[in-house]
Sequence to fold (458 residues):
Amino acid sequence: MNLPPESHAGASQDLFLTQGEERLEDVSRLRGMFPDLPVEALVKEDLLRLGISFSAEALKYCADFKRKSYFIFSFDMVPIDEMAQEENLSAPEEIQLNGGAWDLRRTTVSVRVNPYSPWRADMAGDQLTLSCGDQAISHIDLQPVPEYYLETLENGQPVHEVAPTIEWGYLVYLTVYRKCQYFGFKEECRFCDINENYRQQVKAGRPYRTVKPMDEVLEALSILDRVNSPSKAYTLTGGSVTRSLKGQGEAEFYANYARAIEEKFPGRWIPKAVTQALPEDEQQILKDAGIQIYHPNYEIWDEELFPILCPGKTAYVGRDEWHRRIIAATDIFGAENVIPNFVAGIEMSRPHGYTDPEQAVESTREGLQFFMSQGVCPRFTVWCPEPLSPLVVDRKNAGELQPPAPLEYHARLLVAWRDCHKEHGLPVPPGYGPPGAGNAIFSVSSFMDVIEVDENGN
Ligand code: SF4
Fold:
């Protein structure tokens, strides 16, 4: 699966159909293994781990809707210069699967471009449709271009470059620092392409700036506010600051934005921040600036794999201290507001990761138990091997593939996360919109889709 361009170059339509058949058999097998998992979640996870391909007609259709903003990482499975159809310019930010042959409930999925994926967006008459191999799966709905996406700042910057929204418009994604000071292959998290994606986007002509000017952020938010954007939360995010940035440490750098936003628009959005796991006095700076939800992402639980996959986090903070600071944050933000992310699937990355999905999830379950038993609810992003990340570049140089984790891993993880969340009686994580299959809008993993709700969504 996820064939790289060189092996796909001579690939036939037959191969595409065979891969589609394999995917559908796998989905069917996992439906049998986990009958209480929504099928929508299985399809969503497979789309996130393998990406989606577009026919030329589908891309043409998509270009009139809200497009991919490249809000932080590439989240694609080929680099821009290998996109023969220039998918980076027309692919939608997200798709919503709905109805169709499989009668799916509405399911919101982030788009990861992969021209070699058997999951394909194509036109059936005037309807955009998802198919797998030769089987039609569902209709695809797209988000219209929001009014504020058509506006520009006084200096000509498009609003969507400064303050794009994801999660179907729910979350304003403010990547105010577009690089990370964990620099080079010895420090960058090995699944991450933030620095390389910055370079490829600038080369492709996107007006990326390393640091988003404060006045532009405030001006863009004023426009969102004026047009009554339905957005409910914002995330302040970017790379880690290990030295200083604009003369400030990490907490102060991100806190400045929160302070200014909260002064100008008090209570308008739920304020969230992604940073390293900071010492308590620096966490307090964020809290005092107005941050409500804190994301000190631990990326992977496994004790042996953490230093291999997160060398920068290991060198600057260390695994045990990272975890200690996450728990310490519960006294500052309240346990339900401490929501660290992990990257689901990197436990199975080659060459050091697990080869058995059950064992990989057992390792991760240990971390879920550790945090959830103390009231902290981790959430996750599905790993797709980004071609410019060290994990993929290394394997490519060795002439080998870096495939994503198997769908079985993701199915087992969803069950583990759901059951652990239920076992500890935790609330629905705040700041992610509605839970439950058919309602969830969080688009980079299905953890919100598998929370069980009644017919009223409660
Ligand atoms: S901390 Fe790791 S995951 Fe986050 S931006 Fe830096 S390298 Fe990427």
Notes: The mean pLDDT is 95.
